[in-house]
Amino acid sequence: MEHTRRPTLIEYVLSQQKAHPGATGEFSILLTQIALAGKIISRELKQAGLAGSLGLSGETNIFGEEVKKLDQFANQIFVRTLEGSSMVCIMSSEEMSEPAEFECDQVGAKYVVVIDPLDGSSNTDVNGNLGSIFAIYPKISKGPRGSEEDLLQPAANIAAAGYIVYGPGTVFVYAADGCVSGFTLDIGYGEFMLSHPDVKIPHKGRYYSVNESYYSKWDRPTQMFVDYLRGTDSGGAKPHSSRYSGSLTADFHRIMLEGGVYLYPGEIKDGKKTSGKLRLLYEAAPLAYVVYQAGGLASTGSHRILEMKPTDLHQRVPLIIGSAEDVIVAEELNRKRGL
Ligand code: FBP
Description:
The chain has helices at about 10-15, 25-45, 50, 70-85, 150, 220-230, 250-260, 280-295, 325-335; strands spanning about 55-60, 65-70, 90-95, 100, 110-120, 130-140, 160-165, 170-175, 180-185, 190-195, 205-210, 240, 260-265, 270, 270-275, 295-300, 320. It is of the alpha+beta class. It has an 8-stranded mixed beta sheet with strand order 4-3-5-6-7-8-9-10, with helices on both faces. Strands 12-11-13-17-16 form a 5-stranded mixed beta sheet, sandwiched between helices. Helix 1 packs antiparallel against helix 2 (about 25-45) and helix 2 packs antiparallel against helix 4. The radius of gyration is 20 Å and the shape is globular.
């Protein structure tokens, strides 16, 4: 009897690379380096309660947020792993106020990476789902060194993007060349094995993920959209079911597989609408690229995330992301209410 087995991540990436005759393999190595960081973080999370890595680090970041030990650990692992790849000239992280530049010579590092090393910080100490989010851009600036110009590119320029979910299992999902594929970590092999080939998000969804405790602070179109999702104002359409885990990555993964919409809207403060909590570069743009490759959409309500040109490394944006039909309902409500 012939024993077949699933391809590993590197085998799959190399098979996809055949579609690019000029490819040098650097991109494949970089993707597997990011997966390596995910394996190291996954192992640390699984024993964090025993290893003393739960709780606060005692430090505060430039946004005045208290930094968790695991946030710091995850960030350090990504910095070290990306530097070690010698494929990256500059990287930026949600956990770092300034980008990190890596030694690179004339010919070397032609990639730029942005990351949210550990998403879902409120879940770290309660064994809740967590995630990492990444995007890889080509270097566009002249000269050997990377610059802010390389980091502030629109998501449409992304070469590949993805996320890692740390839940009951650890799943690595990446999008490139119009295809989204998922790999589950086989802890026996220590390898990510293909488990979700060619993911396509359902056009219309079953679930919605939003922190409804902010309802009173939202503008009218946002409230009307959530009323529609709840079925209280959907003209009899079957309501979506509410799921909010505290981790964008975990909620997004469910929506990618089963359809629906995640939103983190802005709030009305002093008559003005804020930009919400999520970062364009590290959260919204990478996931917008992934959902788009799978047939979904990502919007601020009035602008498509993929077309947005970032103006600041830590810029925040309202986010509505998921099944195309659901996102379009939200955009239409915004358009109708003239916002
Ligand atoms: P972090 O990257 O700091 O974790 O922030 C993002 C996030 O944790 C999302 O994963 C999650 O959906 C949301 O914020 C939860 O925010 P809130 O507690 O305001 O609902």
